[in-house]
## 1
Amino acid sequence: MLDEVTEDIEVSGTFEWQNGSWPMQIRLRGASTRHALKKSFRVSFPDSSPLPSRVIYFKAEPMDHTMQQEKLSHDLFHAEGHPCSQVTYVNLEPQRRLSRCLPQQVEPIRTPFKEQAGLNPQGHLIRAATFGDPRDAKPGDPRGKQERIALDALKRFLIQAWDEPDDSFESWVRQHMDWPRVRDYLALQTLCHRSEIEANDYFFYQDPDSGQWSFLPWDHNNGNFAVAAFGNRLHEPHRRRFPQSIPQLDGRSPLTTSFIPGSSSGTQSSAEPT
């Protein structure tokens, strides 16, 4: 698993708790983070395990040296009542070739998420896959049953959105989308200062009763709150010291701060702001 980081190789293990034991599977997750020293994991359990979820994501956040962007973003969405994954910090102590780390446990957006988030379990849930013309590429990655039906419904919706004339687009959106929820989603993204987003950084959800679509946030670990990502995205986390650009506050000039792992505060660096 650690030698072939680009492959989804699952390793079997045993989960022990309160004098009981259950089989488990673990593999790496993420894209570029697979190459960083600090790894992210996907852990899965059988139905018979005592845990409330069969799948757990441990996100290492190696590109976010604040370790706060994802947590704060999701807390903000939750505070405003928007459906969003739960995020908590955990103390993980791997053995052998992996270093001790403080990852974030991020609730997966899968079928169980819908009911836990107050959404209709029968609704379509699809991870976005493209910003382009839906005729040219698969528009998303469905979750749960009836994947083909869900994907066809999303494709029809996106083609209509793509073809709708500008002068009638607003009325079309209000008819086919849950506009209050979409409006809140866009406002919260702005409040988070979301400066980095990719096509697969959000989910589509269709309510089965109204037929309207809305968005669910995902992958808020790079670029939120004006925190600059690392210049060298794959090798920077390996270094003991690394710079962070601090946005201008109260009319003061931006500062570049170096954070040392294990310390409680930063020390000003003479490096130029990035």
## 2
Amino acid sequence: SKFAWHPSRYINASAFENWLQQNGLISTLDFNRCIASLSDDWKPEYNIVNVSNDVAFNDSAPDLTNPDFQAWWWNLFWETSLDPALGLPGDALWIDEFDEQGANSNHIILHNSRRWAEEKNYWFFRVAEILGKQGWDVAFNGEKRPFIWVRGMTSGAQRYATLWSGDTNPTNEEMANQVRGMLAAGLSGFPFWGHDAGGFQAPLDVEAYESLYNRWALQFGSFSPFWRPHGANNASVISRWPLDRGDANAIDARKYGELRYALLPYTYTIAKQASDTGTPIARPMFLHYPDDAEAWVRDLQYLWGPFMLVAPNINGEYAQRLWLPPGQWHDFWDGWLRSGGREVGYGAAVGKMPLFVRAGAIIPMWTPALSTAFVDKSTLHWHVYIGANG
């Protein structure tokens, strides 16, 4: 079976789960559509009848409207790993390649008697519903939170799952698109959006990638709803794992990792607000400054919750230009207070992403730890940014 614990890579998957728990780690189970037909108890009748030749792996193109497939799919996860009685890893689901079924002919008839043209924009809702609503929510009955992320998504499915942006190129232009994509996703009701931080495809210029990796995978990545450096890799020199890279990347991975963990009380608060109200975690400038024309054109900077301003260095140059909204703003790194309502210059040295805090903000932090499992939650550190009524 392709969806199974490999007997030599995971000689004892239960012992691996114990190790994960001891080290404060969780695990994600990855299901690529191409392995469906190679997994235990798959039946050919689960496939879309007369599936188009243009669909990649078209012998492994399940019909999501088929109740028999739906039951088989969830049971595959449950019986392979998710059932707590098994004592095996499995805390989240990563669902890949269902977007490739979009190449189907509009006239194909599905199991529920509807044409593909009627179902294709609903396809990812079905993925989320099968695994989230019908699977996870029923099986765990509120005892374990789901986290299901899919390469593609349909409006309404955020009740059960979220998405990431897919196989992106490691370029400055694509990094800019990911900032815009994150903001668009948040405005569309998907605040828990992710991206392959650093770009998925292998970089053409390995030397130049050092800078992009730092600016995208570490800096922008750490101020994204979920942070996941990930990409194609066929040599350690282009690995997304920071310890495989140069010393500067390793140092900054620790720097931004510790910062993200320190900010978790603040970030968790805005994540809870996103869950309750739909207000994005990463917010376009015009969401807080709708009457300021400048806010509508500054689409490569954003607010992290109500009090922090993030301006990723897209072009890799030292001299950056960014817009500070009206009011007073503290440079996060040195506390320097600047007046807003204007464009400002900023020296973005290697490893230093432009990051500001609104005057009057009160930001709760805690002492960073190697995992949220090990955080001392008995103490909060309150960072008060003077200059306005907080």
